[in-house]
């Protein structure tokens, strides 16, 4: 096992360098193209940021595996270490110069989430954690909220780019949670939603159709902050299953119950 401080320091360095790219192009014209449909966009900054992150990590750990949103998987079957990277989480926000987006870098070691770094360069907020060592915002420890009822809870969610069945399903969940919670927010960057749960700014979060790079780092940070993360309809969490429920732990079962009562949790 590589020393955890070295792994963490390299992840932080990569996040900071990608964040500098974010800031350099923020508020300026960007090259925008689209992926599978007319809503799922990508910018030149996504690609440059991922290239920078990969170069920093590979300089220290050339034999590690990588799973990146833009470049796909590299050597994931030949290493115990898999870095899971979202170079710009909240690309739609970024493309519209809406100041809510982040770098997300997670590490899976021997099939367990081991490390997470999420960096919001605009706010100069770096959330980070390693397994068994607590969670932090910059240099300060963080923990989840103590809100124990859904009626007093501030929740967040996100909606998929696809305009089909998954969107309709989450609209049903959204309606039920609106009626049961204090309020819901939809900020548009899942990694930051997870970190906001970890720091007590939000009490619970759910979303469908996410990918490993959206959730790996944030899941580590929530767990280390004392919260709970599962897939929908489950007591466990697998980053490769496209659903997530995250909370302070106190409202978790109620959130799962509401989703179950809406039917259709076979995701």
How many strands in all? 15
As a percent range, the share of strand residues is 25-35%
Give unreliable regions as ranges: none
Largest sheet: 8 strands, mixed
End-to-end separation? 34 Å
Radius of gyration: 17 Å
Helix content: 25-40%
Order of helices and strands: HEEHEEEHEEEEEEHEHEHEEH
CATH superfamily of the largest domain: Fructose-1,6-Bisphosphatase, subunit A, domain 1
DSSP helical segment count:
7
Q: What can be said about this structure in brief?
A:
The chain has 267 residues and is an alpha+beta fold.
Note down, in words, how this protein is organized:
- The chain is of the alpha+beta class.
- It folds into two domains: 139 residues, Fructose-1,6-Bisphosphatase, Chain A, domain 1 (2-Layer Sandwich), CATH 3.30.540.10; 112 residues, D-Maltodextrin-Binding Protein, domain 2 (3-Layer(aba) Sandwich).
- The chain is 34% helix and 27% strand.
- The chain has seven helices and 15 strands.
- An eight-stranded mixed β-sheet has the order 4-3-5-6-7-8-9-10, with helices on both faces.
- A hairpin with a 2-residue loop joins strand 9 and strand 10.
- Helix 1 packs antiparallel against helix 2 and helix 5 runs parallel beside helix 6.
- The model has no long low-confidence stretch (mean pLDDT 93).
Which key features would you list for this structure?
globular; five-stranded mixed beta sheet; 267 residues; 15 strands; D-Maltodextrin-Binding Protein, domain 2; 7 helices; Fructose-1,6-Bisphosphatase, Chain A, domain 1
